[in-house]
Amino acid sequence: MRVLLTGGATGGHIYPALALGRYIRKEDPTAELQFVGAKGGLEEKIIPQAGFILETLEVKGFPRRFTPALFKSCFLLGRAALHASRILRTFKPDVIIGTGGFAAAPVVMAGLVHRKRVILHEQNVLPGLANRVFAPWVYGVCLSYEASKDYFRRSSNLYLTGNPRASEMEEVEKDSARNLLGLDPELPLVLAVGGSGGAEKLNQCMLDFLFLSAGNKNLQVLYVTGEKYYEQVISRLAKGKIIENYGGRLQVRAYQQEIPLAISAADLMITRAGATTLAELTALGRAAIVVPSPNVVHNHQLLNAQELFNHGAVSLIEEGGLSGQVLQDEVYRILYNSSLLEQMSQISKSLGCTDAASNIYKLFLS
């Protein structure tokens, strides 16, 4: 069996494809897998490091309004589709799986022209442009949220599968996770993470929160700043002698490699509302305070967050209303109310879909 996986430019598209590739390789070691992504995207680093073959296309996203850049994007898309056609003729895939993003568009387009069986995966509540355009013509569209069905014209090829990234989230017993991370097994733990790139406003408010909460001895924090903001955060904490004041109850890191370990150790998360992050925290059943990024297309993180908030799994604070004081009030309201914390965690766990990769695998085997 030959499987071509395509999608990229952002981690939200890359990690589901990578999770699915690893699952296919585990289930069928004889399967031949190849990834196609965007030149200059994160996939150029992530996919080869994971041990998979990657080919890249020169392609750019479409501007959201009519500008001269639109013509260049159209030209690159056409040229990338021709390149993708050559890849298909050489690799001869049995199935193409697209996880969204502009990197996937020319491959899916070429796949339909070559009459290949194509399956799409949508991570967000609000489907991306490429997935909405191609959805009526593909074999199947795999959804992470039931609410996404309202955005597609054709319903007969929609399947609620979950996000395959959730299938890779292996929970570690809380005390063991804390021991491995050098954290106190007894104190309540807040995990704050704004994604691999960090988040400026979230970091500003987290710093204010840490200053406000420095005197609270019944709290420990694992704070992942993102590499871009790490030095800035450390400098400000050092000036205020905040790390010393916490006395070992605060760990600040630029990046957390083993995110399942960190989530397993936490009682409560503070995070953005990217699709991959929400798949991870629901797979492990953690309560969270979610601050959607307003700097994304069509504000789709807000829709992701609202889906979990409506079920009661997370607290939702929009960035415009965020401050260190607001964050402290909400953390204390949830963290020190054991029944509320447990209720949110249970609801979160019920929304997780740890068999997502298996669901998609079964679909394309059919």
Topology:
Elements: E1 2-6, H1 11-27, E2 32-38, H2 43-49, E3 54-57, H3 69-91, E4 95-98, H4 105-113, E5 117-122, H5 129-134, E6 140-143, E7 158-160, H6 174-181, E8 189-193, H7 200-212, E9 220-224, H8 230-239, H9 242-246, E10 250-253, H10 259-265, E11 268-271, H11 275-284, E12 287-290, H12 300-311, E13 314-316, H13 324-335, H14 338-351, H15 356-365
Parallel strand pairs: 1-2, 1-4, 2-3, 4-5, 5-6, 6-7, 8-9, 8-11, 9-10, 11-12, 12-13
Helix pairs in contact: 1-15, 3-4, 6-10, 7-13, 11-14
Give a quick summary of the entry.
By secondary structure, this protein is α/β, with parallel strands linked by helices. The protein has 15 helices and 13 strands. The strands form 2 sheets. It has a 7-stranded parallel sheet, sandwiched between helices.
How large is the count of helical segments?
15
Tell me the CATH superfamily of the largest domain: Glycogen Phosphorylase B
Calculate the terminal CA-CA distance, rounded to whole Å.
13 Å
The helix-and-strand class reads alpha/beta
The whole-angstrom Rg is 21 Å
pLDDT below 50 for ≥5 consecutive residues: which ranges? Answer: none
Task: Give a quick account of the main beta sheet: strands, pairing sense, barrel closure.
Answer: 7 strands, parallel
Output the helix-strand order: EHEHEHEHEHEEHEHEHHEHEHEHEHHH
Instruction: State the oligomer.
Output: single chain
Strand content: 15-25%
Mean pLDDT: 92
Q: Helical proportion?
A: 40-55%
The general outline is: elongated
CATH architecture of the largest domain: 3-Layer(aba) Sandwich
CATH topology label of the largest domain: Rossmann fold
Per DSSP E runs of 2 or more residues, the count of β-strands stands at 13
